[in-house]
């Protein structure tokens, strides 16, 4: 696996250089140091030896492709609901309205959250509830594959969160509390970019420039280049660098809630996807704390000279507003469901 990271770095010399965290490394101090440097620098890093086999990753990508190859009328039968579960069509999401000029992202997706039965009182809360699944006979084994990956990815995310806690001077289990990752809003999102060519000068993107909303995101990609990051969002002009895919690795980035928690010490970095005419598949796993978690400046990240920059806010309140700002109203799809 060491060669894997070195090979990735060789590729990245032409684009962006990211630190590589090895979850199997017994030297936790080295991992904390590498992660802390990455979080201070750009908020992105590679994660290897994470415990999810390449064979299973290939199966997840294969099942994802099988869904997106279905006819549109079949996919629209599992259109996302108000709990953000299910299919999101091309142009459904508009991540960068200032630059996308009334045209959304040229990607389609599928949201899968933590399964909460409909009769559970928790299902009344935003982002909690049962998932939406394709018919069993349509894609055999599809649901089982996605539920297994969801479970495994959450364990990976918890392991990363423990290293982040140490990097912030907190107890190692800080993010393991019930109100945080004990009952998380963890969302698996399958993504498919159909091969359109992006043109920033015309406001056309695979995914517009944005930062993620929550704690961290784990991203697995195929071997098609497309992801770009901007390490300094205030620079004029902004400088965008590609992030090269590394076989078997997750690309991990920090979300806005972690930036709020850390009082902007750790970065939630702008990123986007440019299409180059090739189809591209990726799998994002968004990890947010529980619905009732109050996100407020950590005690290790504030001082008399560095007071909190953001007021406290509940996770569900913050997420609900961000999703509302970036997704089409469900009413626009009514004509497709009659």
Summarize the structure in words.
- There is one protein chain.
- Helix 2 (28-41) links the parallel strand 1 and strand 2.
- The protein has helices at 2-12, 28-41, 54-68, 72-75, 97-100, 142-167, 178-182, 256-261, 315-326, and strands spanning 20-22, 44-48, 86-88, 108-112, 185-193, 207-210, 216-221, 227-230, 241-242, 250-254, 270-273, 280-288, 294-295, 313-314.
- The chain is α+β, with helices and mostly antiparallel strands and 338 residues long.
- It is built from nine helices and 14 strands.
- The strands form three sheets. An eight-stranded mixed β-sheet has the order 1-2-10-7-12-5-4-3.
- The chain has one domain (2-336): Sandwich (Jelly Rolls), CATH 2.60.120.330.
- Mean pLDDT is 89; it is low at 1-14.
- Helix 2 crosses helix 6 and helix 3 crosses helix 6 (142-167).
- GO terms for molecular function: dioxygenase activity; metal ion binding.
- Residues 184-289 form the Fe2OG dioxygenase domain.
**CATH 2nd-level architecture:** Sandwich
Number of discrete helical segments: 9
Q: Point out poorly predicted stretches.
A: 1-14
Shape assignment: globular
Q: What structural class should be given to the helix and strand makeup? A: alpha+beta
Give the CATH H-level superfamily: B-lactam Antibiotic, Isopenicillin N Synthase, Chain
Report the C-alpha radius of gyration, rounded.
Answer: 19 Å
How much helical structure, as a percent, in the residues? 25-40%
Q: How would a textbook summarize the main sheet? A: 8 strands, mixed
List the helices and strands and how they pair.
Layout: H1 2-12, E1 20-22, H2 28-41, E2 44-48, H3 54-68, H4 72-75, E3 86-88, H5 97-100, E4 108-112, H6 142-167, H7 178-182, E5 185-193, E6 207-210, E7 216-221, E8 227-230, E9 241-242, E10 250-254, H8 256-261, E11 270-273, E12 280-288, E13 294-295, E14 313-314, H9 315-326
Keywords: Iron, Metal-binding, Oxidoreductase
GO molecular function, one term: metal ion binding
Domain Fe2OG dioxygenase: 184-289
